[in-house]
């Protein structure tokens, strides 16, 4: 006995209507938008369930992430479709037809039957997938003849134009192509012309991909699933060699690499590595990725491995300089970069950084974090105003003995330990940056007088007094802000 027809029902304006129907229900004359009561009268054995658009969206996002094994650029289309940018990757399957067959066969095995098409433009692919023969592949620049016999609904027109066109005897896309553009725009609006141009490739269409689109993508598929750590390490080296060979052939390098292990159950296991400078050394990239393979759970086995590169930049071939000094600098940089990359990938980007000067005289704002091997900034530290090698995250209160009104400390207590000051320099007066509008009030109470002091053990500190003596009833407070190396 065949299964009963199925439909999803949603409430619109207080009326229950069909939101989706399966093939069996459509064959019996049911359609989206039909009242649920009318549908039940026509098909008494209709099986219904509540429409869950949020659940559909979540499931589609999971499917979108799964499709990264076919293309690094995948975009969601509404609640029932996906766009894949397959330019430059179809050769990994032996052609576009084999790639499309593989994709649809996998979806069908997973209980998600789908239709697909390949064309130069998203609009043409959308139309051919829904209204042409399944698995249609339009030749480059040849989508026009394939679109001509399709209904006008294939152009994704707005509801008003889609309802008006059949009443005027315009049923097929080819009939719209025969009309003068000016007449078409005046009668049905510019949106109809734009949709037609988007399908034919005369106008661009923006897609929002789940991840940045990149042609720097490679893939390895296995006859038998793999799961052993040694096999994962081996294929990591193999796929890095494939992608880096392409980068080298194009004279480019990349800063970010993502290696994804695709399991038999459809789940993905990604690992990532970054470089401080663009690179294409396969052995070095694999060395950064391999320590992270311990986090990969192969499940019942890995069937596909993909690798994609981001932040790709031109990279010239390494060449030694005849200048000895320049050659020494290059050697130092080449030796330092792998160390920085290992530290960043092991500890995290937020834990490995370089302090650079920032144009502000307020200490908390005068330092900015940058990547360790970024180019040197134009601004430099003022040699007449030395700053501590370690600036505390927040100034810490201290107890101070000092002569009034502006002498440096004679003794201070910090973290429970009393220290006698042997040498002192200052004060260096710093006020608030009132023009930034970041402070509720300004005045003498907000002025800081900084001193560089050294205790009897030789340790050096950066201390400031907040406020001025004689400023009303508010007594100045002393703080320790940094330590000199």
TrEMBL record:
InterPro entries per UniProt: DNA/RNA_pol_sf, DUF6504, SulA_CellDiv_inhibitor, UmuC
Domain DUF6504: 400-481
Spans through the membrane: none
Region (Disordered): 365-388
Keyword tags: DNA damage
All residue ranges annotated as the UmuC domain in the record: 9-127
UniProt keyword DNA damage present: yes
Stored SUPFAM superfamilies: DNA/RNA polymerases
The organism's place on the tree of life at top rank: Bacteria
A Pfam family annotated for this UniProt entry: IMS
Name assigned to this protein: Protein ImuB
């Amino acid at each position: 006995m065949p299964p009963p027809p199925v439909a999803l029902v949603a409430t619109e304006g207080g009326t229950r209507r069909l939101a989706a129907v399966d093939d069996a229900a459509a064959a019996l004359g049911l359609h989206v938008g039909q009242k649920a009561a009318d549908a039940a009268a026509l098909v008494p054995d209709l099986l219904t369930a509540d429409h869950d658009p949020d659940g559909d969206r979540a499931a589609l996002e999971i499917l979108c992430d799964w499709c990264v094994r076919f293309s690094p650029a995948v975009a969601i289309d509404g609640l029932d479709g996906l766009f894949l940018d397959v330019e430059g990757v179809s050769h990994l399957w032996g052609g576009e037809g084999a790639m499309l067959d593989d994709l649809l066969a996998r979806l069908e095995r997973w209980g998600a039957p789908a239709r697909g098409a390949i064309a130069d433009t998203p609009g043409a692919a959308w139309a051919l997938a829904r209204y042409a023969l399944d698995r249609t592949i339009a030749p480059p620049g040849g989508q026009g003849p394939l679109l001509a016999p399709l209904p006008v609904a294939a152009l994704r027109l707005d509801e008003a134009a889609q309802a008006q066109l059949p009443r005027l005897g315009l049923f097929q896309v080819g009939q719209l192509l025969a009309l003068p553009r000016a007449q078409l725009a005046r009668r049905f609006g510019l949106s109809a012309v734009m949709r037609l141009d988007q399908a034919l490739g005369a106008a661009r269409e923006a897609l929002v991909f789940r991840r940045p689109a990149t042609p720097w993508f490679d893939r390895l598929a296995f006859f038998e699933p793999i799961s052993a750590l040694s096999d994962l390490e081996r294929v990591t080296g193999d796929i890095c060699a494939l992608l880096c060979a392409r980068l080298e052939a194009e004279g480019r390098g990349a800063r970010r690499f993502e290696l994804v292990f695709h399991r038999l159950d459809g789940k993905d296991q990604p690992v990532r590595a970054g470089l401080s400078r663009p690179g294409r050394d396969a052995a070095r990239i694999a060395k950064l990725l391999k320590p992270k393979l311990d986090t990969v759970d192969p499940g019942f086995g890995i069937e596909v491995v993909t690798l994609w590169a981001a932040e790709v930049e031109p990279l010239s071939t390494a060449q030694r300089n005849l200048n000895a000094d320049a050659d020494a600098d290059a050697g130092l940089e080449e030796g330092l970069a792998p160390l920085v990359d290992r530290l960043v990938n092991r500890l995290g980007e937020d834990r490995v950084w370089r302090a650079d000067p920032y144009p502000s005289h307020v200490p908390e704002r005068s330092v900015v974090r940058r990547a360790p091997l970024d180019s040197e900034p134009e601004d430099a530290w003022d040699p007449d105003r030395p700053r501590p090698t370690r600036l505390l995250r927040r100034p810490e209160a201290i107890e101070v003995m000092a002569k009034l009104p502006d002498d440096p400390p004679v003794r201070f207590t910090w973290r429970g330990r009393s220290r006698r000051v042997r040498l002192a320099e200052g004060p260096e007066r710093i006020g608030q940056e009132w023009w930034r509008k970041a402070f509720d009030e300004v005045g003498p109470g907000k002025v800081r007088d900084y001193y560089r002091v050294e205790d009897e053990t030789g340790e050096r500190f950066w201390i400031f007094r907040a406020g001025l003596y004689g400023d009303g009833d508010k007594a100045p407070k002393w703080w320790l802000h940094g330590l000199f190396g």
